[in-house]
Structures are given as structure tokens and as C-alpha cells.
Amino acid sequence: MDLLWHLYLMAFLYIVAGINHFRSPGMYLKIIPPCFPNPKLLNILSGAAEIVLGILLIFPFLSHFAAWGIIALLIAVFPANLFMYQNKKAGFGLPKWMLLLRMPLQLLLILWAYQYTF
Asked: pTM score, two decimals?
């Protein structure tokens, strides 16, 4: 993709989202399904991954690796979207239609990252 600002926007969004894992961990801990062990560690790892991958997107010789990493991360955190939809407390009181909309949005984010894998 030739529009570099799209890449920089994606990098910025992942860096900010990653930082937010450390600023507001309770929000993320609430959406981690209880079947996953050590939610605090998972929150730290996913937040750090978002920051690192966002930074790596900026470097042309690393951006395709970072894009694959983002795709893997989006797939790995998908159970949180399902849990938010199924569990009223994890859904922050948002309407069901909005929580349902998050799932195809994840697919769009994967497609956006995929554009930078080659």
C-alpha cells in the first residue's frame, strides 16, 4: 500500500492502545475470559506487544513482520470480544449490537494489517 499515512495511523493507534493497557489495566482485565490463566500477565504482554509492534510498523524494513505480529495478536485477543458479548459485566453495559459489531471490526483490522505484510 502506498499511503504511508495509513501505516503511521495504524502504528499510532496500536501504540496508544498498548499504553492504555498500563494506564487502565482494570478495563482489560475485565474482558479476559476466566479460562485464561494469569490475566495480569496477559494484559501486560498484550499491551507491550501492541506498543512494540506499533513502533516496528514505522520502520520499512520491519513493517511486514510487525503487520504479521498484529494479525497474530488480533487473532489471539479475539476470545475477549466473544467474552464481552457473552458476559454482561465484561461488556461494560454496551448494547449487544455494538458488542456484536466488534467481531467483524476485528476482521477489518486484520485486513488492514494484512495490506502491509508484503
From this structure: 0.92
